[in-house]
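Can anyone check this?
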Amino acid sequence: MKQRRPMKIKLHLLCIPFVFIMIFSGQIAYYAIILSSLLWHEAGHLLAAMICGVKMKSCVITPYGGEIEFENPAVVPATSLLWIALGGPIATILGIGLAFFMPELLAAKLIDVQLVLLAINVLPIIPLDGGRIFLASLFLVFPSVRVFEYYYWLSLTIATILLMITSYYLPQSIFLAILCLFIWLQALKEWNYRKYRLAFEKYVMNRLT
């Protein structure tokens, strides 16, 4: 019997600039709150995946949340993908509610971080949760390969606009600029690999019909 490998949890390299900025600005405690919020957010995704019975290969913690790699993505139904994407924002909303029962000083900072995390993740951009939620919903309502290609283009366009806006307000917006740069790089990667992903989506659609 083949033994199942444990899921790997890793920290993305682009999280390192955040660590150094927090260290040099004397905001280690604030970074601890951010990291805890990211882990809590990602726990929502992992729990949703477990409930849906989806096997996970790895989880990479990123500046905006995390990215889950499934062991066999071809067999994951769109409904499961939708619930897994919703798991993170739901966990963040619950985290905001729990923060009201914590000491006032900690609660205020925690709520601020959670609100920013939620606001960023609901943006309809791949690879953010909002993008994955929209994409899974789109697949359920209108399963067309051409629509997916348009959506990848839209994600890259929105990510580029956000990067330009945050870069304009540097250095005050350095945290958001780094975050938007990361999102833009991820959106660019999704765009570059769109042909392979569209071929995969076509295969999934053929399998379901």
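Reply from J.R.: I decoded it. The chain is about 70% helix and 10% strand.
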